[in-house]
Design brief:
heterodimer, A: 167 residues, alpha+beta, Immunoglobulin-like, 11 strands, 16% helix, B: 211 residues, mainly alpha, Rna Polymerase Sigma Factor, Chain: A, 2 domains, globular
C-alpha cells in the first residue's frame, strides 16, 4: 500500500495475518480495560476546539510543583502550576480545604486586572483579578477545571485559555 | 458511551474512507467534522500518550494540544493514513515534551494507581479475566519496552493505516529497531511457549516465530 503523503516507504515486514489481527484485538481489549480514556475527554476537547475562533491565546503548562514534598510548610496538599502564553503567565496554587474542595490562589504576570473564569464540569466560576494580578477561588469542586483569563481592556490583551487540569 | 464504540472501530473496513471524507470536510471548515475525528481517534491518542509515559492528567493536556495543532496542519493531510501517522507522531512528541518539562508523573490529587504509566489491570480484572487474557498480558509484559509501546499503539490504529504508522514508529530507531512484524512474532512465541509450557512445542507449528 502506497501513501504518497508520507515517504511512500513500505513497512519492512509482511502484512499481518488473521492470527496477528486476533492478537492485536486482544491487546486493544486489554488496554481498553486497563487504561481507558476518560469518556468525557472527546467532549472536552471539542469544547476546547470550539473556543479557538474567539481570538484566544492558548497557554501551555510549563511547570508544576508538588507541594507535598515541602513537608515543613505544614499544608496537607498544595501544588503550584504555571501556564504560559505569549502575552500572559498565569501561576496558581491549589490547596485543599477541610471539606475536600479545593482553593485556588492565582497571580497574573505581568500584573493586570482581568476577569478570570474557572470552568468546572458543573459550573463556571468567575472572579476578578486585582490590579496586582491576584485572584482567588475559595471553594472549587474537585474534578476537571479550566482557567480562562478574559480579554482585558488594560492592557488590551487577548483572552487566554489554559489547558484543563484535574483538581 | 460512544468513545467505547469508536475505540473498537479498527475492525470496520470502511473507517479509513470515512475519515478521509471527514478530513476533507474539516479542511473546508466544517466544525462538526473535526469533532467527529476527535471522537474517533482520541482513544488511540490516549494510548499513545500513556504508552509514552504521560500521567492521566498530562495525557489530557497532550491530547488537547495535539488536536489544536492539527487544525493548522489540515492542509498538508489528505489520507486517513497520513492523518493517523501525523497524530500519533505529534502525540508522542508532545508527551515527551511535557515529561521533559519536569511535570511529576503522579499528580497529587489523583488516585496514584490510575496515573502510573505502566499500569496493569487490577486484581479484580485479573480474577474475572479469562486465562487467555492473562497470558496475553503477561506475554506483553515480557516484550522489550519498545515492542510493548509499538503493539499497544498499533492495536488502536485503524487497520488500513497499520503499515504507515508501524513503519513511522520503527523508523527513528533504524533498521534494527522494533518493527510490528518482529514484535508480533516475539509475542506469538511467548504466547505459544506459555500455552504449551514448552517453547519447543509451539501450538502453531505452521508459523516460524523467529521471523
Amino acid at each position: 500500500m502506497m501513501h504518497p503523503d508520507l515517504s511512500g516507504r513500505p513497512a519492512d515486514d509482511e502484512t499481518p495475518d488473521e492470527s496477528d489481527l486476533a492478537i492485536l484485538d486482544g491487546v486493544r481489549e486489554l488496554f481498553q480495560a486497563a487504561d481507558p480514556m476518560p469518556a468525557s475527554l472527546p467532549e472536552q476537547i471539542r469544547f476546547w476546539l470550539a473556543l479557538r475562533d474567539l481570538e484566544v491565546e492558548v497557554a501551555r503548562l510549563c511547570a508544576e510543583d508538588d507541594g507535598r514534598l515541602l513537608a515543613a510548610r505544614g499544608t496537607e496538599q498544595s501544588r503550584t502550576i504555571t501556564f504560559d502564553s505569549d502575552s500572559l503567565t498565569i501561576m496558581i496554587r491549589v490547596d485543599a480545604n477541610r471539606d475536600g474542595s479545593a482553593r485556588i490562589d492565582g497571580w497574573l504576570a505581568p500584573p493586570q486586572s482581568r476577569t478570570i473564569e474557572l470552568r468546572t464540569m458543573a459550573e463556571t466560576l468567575t472572579t476578578d483579578a486585582d490590579d496586582g494580578g491576584r485572584f482567588a477561588f475559595r471553594r472549587v469542586p474537585r474534578g476537571t477545571a479550566q482557567l480562562v483569563a478574559r480579554a482585558g481592556p488594560d492592557p488590551d490583551g487577548p483572552t487566554v485559555v489554559a489547558p484543563a487540569l484535574v483538581l | 458511551m460512544e468513545s467505547r464504540e469508536s475505540a473498537t472501530a479498527p475492525a470496520q473496513p470502511d473507517r479509513g474512507a470515512r475519515l478521509e471524507v471527514l478530513v476533507d470536510a474539516a479542511r473546508s471548515g466544517r466544525e462538526d467534522a473535526i469533532g467527529q475525528i476527535v471522537t474517533e481517534l482520541s482513544p488511540l491518542l490516549w494510548q499513545v500518550a500513556r504508552a509514552a509515559g504521560s500521567s492521566t492528567s498530562d495525557a489530557e493536556d497532550v491530547l488537547q494540544t495535539v488536536w489544536l495543532r492539527l487544525l493548522t496542519h489540515l492542509d498538508a493531510i489528505h489520507t486517513s493514513a497520513a492523518l493517523t501517522a501525523w497524530l500519533v507522531t505529534t502525540t508522542r512528541r508532545e508527551a515527551w515534551r511535557v515529561r521533559g518539562a519536569g511535570r511529576r508523573q503522579v499528580p497529587v490529587d489523583q488516585d496514584g494507581l490510575a496515573a502510573v504509566p505502566d499500569q496493569r489491570p487490577g486484581a479484580e480484572d485479573l480474577a474475572v479475566a479469562a486465562d487467555l487474557r492473562r497470558e496475553l498480558w503477561e506475554a506483553l509484559g515480557q516484550l522489550p519496552p519498545h515492542c510493548q509501546e509499538l503493539l499497544r499503539i498499533v492495536a488502536f490504529v485503524p487497520r488500513p493505516d497499520y503499515d504507515v504508522v508501524a513503519a513511522q514508529l520503527g523508523m527513528p530507531r533504524g533498521s534494527i529497531g522494533p518493527t510490528r512484524g518482529r514484535c508480533l512474532a516475539k509475542l506469538r512465541a511467548l504466547l505459544a511457549s506459555s500455552a504449551e509450557g514448552n517453547p519447543d512445542d509451539a501450538s502453531r507449528p505452521e508459523r516460524q516465530a523467529g521471523r
